[in-house]
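Researcher: Go.
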Amino acid sequence: MTMTDTPAQSRSLNIMLWVVAVGFFMQTLDSTIVNTALPPIARSLGESPLRMQSVIIGYSLTMAVVIPASGWLADRFGTRRIFQTAIVLFVLGSILCAAAHSLEFLVCARVVQGVGGAMLLPVGRLAVLRTFAPERYLQALSFVAIPGMIGPLIGPTLGGWLTETFSWHWVFLINVPVGIAGGIATILYMPNSKISGLGRFDMSGYLLLALFMVAISFSLDGLAELGFEHATVLMLLIASLALLVAYGLHATRKPEPLFSLELFRIHTFSVGLLGNLFARIGNGGMPFLIPLVLQVCLGYSPIEAGLMMLPTTFAGMLSKRLATNLIERHGYRRVLVGNTFFVGVMIASFALISPNLPIWLLVIQLALFGAANSIQFTGMNTITLKDLGRAGASSGNSLLSMVQMLSMSLAVTSAGALLQTFQNHLGQQQNLAGALPAFHATFICVGVITSASAWIFLQLSPERTQAARVEPASEL
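Model: Structure:
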């Protein structure tokens, strides 16, 4: 489209932008809205709140698995058709979640929801890029990104309010009317752009990566929620490593692999990608742990636990400009090494949580953690993408998105496994009020994992990290 669009064309374009933005909002909202509702959901399903991490893992792991295929599917079948399919699956998954009568049913429903959610953002973004003229890309993509940033910010509070005011079912049912309206608007206003003569999808490489992600997630959760034997966990770990190596060998022989290994010749991309994976394994479990400890051990209501996440949100927003200034002044290496270590220390400091801790001190802790976490995401994402160039931008961005969702799954898996293990050794299994020592030990371990990942950013060369200007990067 050009700047000479007729009023009717401009109206259609604006409505399409709103459709994509709302789809992005629904997808990101559901990554956090369920966190404050987990204890009420557990009580309703007759489960322990300490064993509910699979509700989050099922959603984020499914997104990690499906994201690499979403672009090819849109190219092959058309952006409108795939985006509409994504909305249908997301709404169907939401309805099934609300109808869940057991934990197993709920997790399966979250998988359906995750399949739809995984396609909403990349396919929606692709539709925008193919519809708008190049001079309007930045304005259009910025508009789409704003609701996506708002979703995770209001998710915990909205989830707590819906749970307490109505019931936990509305945490999922809120997506239904929005999704129906979005699906109708997609049919009416989104072009079905596709690519003719598209090459074959690298199904072998895709299956190797998908099985790797599933195997490593199941191995980490095997001793906790799933109750696997040690031998089974060990075999899953070995299988996951074998699958990753097999993909590497496959990618060296395949003319057009799913993700080319040539990307890893770019030093900043390799370090940034590994940093994203391991640093997020540490801090990515906090949105799961904090609302849980506040409700299970300190007696907070769902909405009170959601409101306590607001200092993290606001401090993260306010620190955006600070992140840019710090990196431009000190370089990526120094900022990421120091900030990663500080994030780990802040996570470990939550081991001080107790009924006697003044609420003002807890608010300060949450605000400092939110500010440091925001700086971390900005630095990690920007260093990963900044040297890719136009040729590798699409593939590198898709790989980063997959790793981010995988790390979110592994973060909650690891936090849940640690919590369950410490509860078995430090607390009474049936006494949730006595679970505070288990939370304390988990916070310390997660903090150590995060601080240790600072070593990865030490591998950045100082002369390569100085930047005259830092481009904004998504926190997702």
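Model: The chain is about 75% helix and 0% strand.
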